[in-house]
Amino acid sequence: MKHNVDFLYPHVLVDTKKIEENARHLVSVCEQAGISVMGVTKGVCGAPPVARAMLNGGVHSLGDSRLQNIERMKNAGINARFCLLRVPTPSEARFVPDLCDMSLQTEPAVARMVAARAREIGSVHQVILMVDVGERREGVMPERVVEVCREMASLEGIELVGLGTNVACYNGVLPTYENVRILVDLAREVRDRLGIELPVVSGGNTATTVLLEKGQMPRGVTQLRIGEGIILGTDISASRTIPGIHQDTIILRAQVAELQRKPSAPEGRRGLNAFGLCQVVEDRDVRLRGILAIGRQDVEPSGLKPLEKGVQIVGASSDHTIIDLEDYPGAIRVGDVLEFGINYPACLRLMTSPYVQKFYVSRA
Ligand SMILES: *Cc1c(COP(=O)(O)O)cnc(C)c1O
């Protein structure tokens, strides 16, 4: 396939039409359960074309974990409601109300700083209190929720609009009817005891969409925050693809810089490699091997999937990726371009690397 971008390698080719269609599908699935979708852009560093695709697909707001990414989208003229997903540090607090309409928070001391800045600029900043239902990343423990809500609700300058939770990110705790239900029950308890409306019950991320497919989403969840599912059509926490949407949204294209036939086994007394590891090598005799000008600084090599038969990734150092092309069926030469599908960790690093060009296409 010929693209108009055959001059700078390596690059990623992002198909914003497919991402838009993914967003539209997930928005519609969620809508049927009374759930609105926050499109999460951190996996692409807040790339404005992807943010626009999500909005065209119908997401009701955008979330990102980094203020810089939110600033990037605003500077690109993206007009949306923005939510900061990572709980702000004290040093970030005073930028939060200026850049974001909403944020996820867990520390009353930081909420107080955010509230103070919101009062300064004459706005009211919305806050979702994150609750830990088992994942042990951010969030207050359930037994403290009422007390922390009382404290946050008393702050002038912020409005406590809901409770949220997150699973399947660090410890990989899977979403279940039971653990999401904890959040719904807590929201009801806070409404009853404190008389706060709490319209938002933000039930989770991409992983939690599986509960919709299985018909196990507790009633009362009003929002999901979805990144990976929209961007890549996958749910890495369950090693699955999401049915009915595109997975070939972003591909990596890299040019062969060296192509040589050489023994696959190293020769010489060996220590550790540049990453402090002892590389395990399978001796496959002499093989045709290629070098790609991309490495661990730019990508997680295990997250690349060659799109052509006969291409095998041997491994990578900081800025070289070694590929085995012995079984490549056709002719191959230096300068030829190989294409790879990517998973979430690879996507994150590729989009972050300034050494990887980004091209956006929209193939309707
Ligand atoms: C990253 C993140 C999300 C989105 O996660 P995906 O798996 O990409 O859908 C949602 N909420 C929070 C708090 C996050 O940090």
Question: Can you give a write-up of this model?
Answer:
The protein has 364 residues and is of the alpha/beta class. The chain has helices at residues 16-31, 48-56, 67-75, 90-93, 96-99, 108-120, 145-153, 177-194, 209-213, 228-232, 344-352; strands spanning 11-15, 36-40, 61-64, 82-84, 102-105, 125-131, 158-165, 200-202, 223-226, 234-235, 240-241, 250-263, 286-292, 304-306, 312-316, 321-324, 337-342, 357-361. The strands form 3 sheets. Strands 1, 12, 13, 14, 15, 16, 17 and 18 form an 8-stranded mixed sheet that branches. The protein has an 8-stranded parallel sheet with strand order 8-7-6-5-4-3-2-9. It has a two-stranded antiparallel ribbon with strand order 10-11. The protein is elongated and about 75 Å long. The two termini are 15 Å apart. The model has no long low-confidence stretch (mean pLDDT 96). The structure holds pyridoxal-5'-phosphate. Residues 40, 42-43, 65, 85, 104, 166, 205-206, 225-229 line the site of pyridoxal-5'-phosphate. Pyridoxal-5'-phosphate is lined by residues 40, 42-43, 65, 85, 104, 166, 205-206, 225-229.
Helix content: 25-40%
Task: Output mean pLDDT.
Answer: 96
Work out the helix count.
11
User: Total number of β-strand segments?
Assistant: 18
Q: What Rg is obtained from the alpha carbons, in whole angstroms?
A: 23 Å
Molecules bound to protein: pyridoxal-5'-phosphate
Stretches with pLDDT under 50, minimum 5 residues:
none
What is the approximate shape?
A: elongated
Largest sheet: 8 strands, mixed
Strand content: 25-35%
Structural class: alpha/beta
What's the order of the H and E elements?
Answer: EHEHEHEHHEHEHEHEHEHEEEEEEEEHE
Termini gap: 15 Å
